[in-house]
Amino acid sequence: VQLVQSGAELRNPGASVKVSCKASGYTFTSYYIEWVRQAPGQGLEWMGRIDPEDGGTAYAQKFQGRVAFTVDTSRSTVYVELKSLRSEDTAVYYCYRGGFGDWGQGTQVTVSS
């Protein structure tokens, strides 16, 4: 099983960013993909999850309205898009297969002017 994420991103405040997570080695539509992030010096913060089978999503209340998870089953890839970025969004973003210890390598997102 592998989850491979897209590379580091640098954005200005107010911009948007989209990070991908490509899965392989298992039946992609059988398991949720969850997203968490870790800001410098902070613990892991759960952002939400997506069901690749039907695109159903659940978001942590903190991110409601500002984050969107999408899926492309033809590419076995899920995406997280975060809008209206602010400096507090600077973090490493991780995807993982729900209920298992399979994690992406992380994507550094830096928000700075």
Q: What would you say about this model in short?
A:
With 113 residues, the protein is mostly beta strands.
Radius of gyration: 13 Å
Q: What best-fitting shape do the alpha-carbon axes yield? A: globular
Q: Classify the secondary structure makeup into a structural class.
A: mainly beta
In helices, the fraction of residues equals: under 10%
Number of helical stretches of at least 4 residues? 0
Mean pLDDT: 97
- The proportion of residues in beta strands is over 45%
Q: What is the chain-wise order of helices and strands? A: EEEEEEEEEE
Strand arrangement, major sheet: 2-10-9-4-5-6
* Distance from first to last alpha carbon: 37 Å
Could you give the count of β-strands? 10
Major sheet, described briefly? 6 strands, mixed
Low-confidence stretches: none
